[in-house]
Design brief:
This protein is an all-alpha fold and about 190 residues long. It has five helices and no strands.
Length: about 190
């Protein structure tokens, strides 16, 4: 009897280990793709923050020197206002993108706890619930992050391109005004 109990106990332990082992490959694959995607999203968040800082600094520098401001005609004054308004609008797009990314990162962080639970459960040999359902849900989150990241990169590139173009137009306008002002002094 004692032998049978020991044999049943060992069988139960082996069965439990085997049931956890069937999830090893899917969980390890998920953890690898999760970590890779986390690194890519984190890198993008840093890039987005750097671009926002750069854009805010560019806006702060979009000023007309006092010596030129008094010599500007109505058309030049209107053009300066138009360029600043366009630049500010693009900054708004950058802020909207940041809000979207921040919202996603918040969801991502919440789901990271689920990934950790699966990883720790695998290491401890104890998994519970619908493990394959959890894995499928988390893989969908990775796919969503990858798709979103590509879209965000495209949006950021478009916005930064627009900001650079507006800034260049502003610089060209000021250079033209300075050139006309210097010709008027001679």
């Amino acid at each position: 009897m004692r032998k049978n109990a020991l044999l049943m106990g060992l069988t139960l332990v082996l069965f439990a280990c085997n049931s956890v082992e069937k999830f090893r490959a899917p969980i390890e694959e998920l953890v690898g793709s999760w970590d890779t995607t986390t690194a890519a999203v984190t890198e993008f968040v840093g890039q987005l923050g750097a671009e926002q800082t750069k854009a805010n600094n560019m806006l702060a520098q979009m000023t007309v020197p006092e010596d030129l401001a008094g010599k500007m005609d109505e058309a030049a004054t209107a053009k300066v206002g138009e360029l600043k308004a366009s630049f500010t609008e693009q900054l708004g797009s950058l802020s909207t993108l940041n809000e979207t990314v921040t919202g996603f990162v918040s969801q991502w962080t919440e789901k990271a706890a689920e990934v950790n639970t699966l990883k720790e459960g695998l290491a401890a040999g104890k998994l519970s619930g619908d493990v394959m359902g959890q894995i499928a849900d988390l893989k969908e989150m990775v796919a969503s992050a990858t798709t979103n990241l590509e879209g965000w990169k495209g949006s950021l590139a478009g916005i930064t391109n627009n900001l650079g173009g507006i800034s260049q137009q502003f610089t060209t306008l000021l250079d033209g005004l300075a050139s006309m002002a210097s010709k008027g002094k001679k």
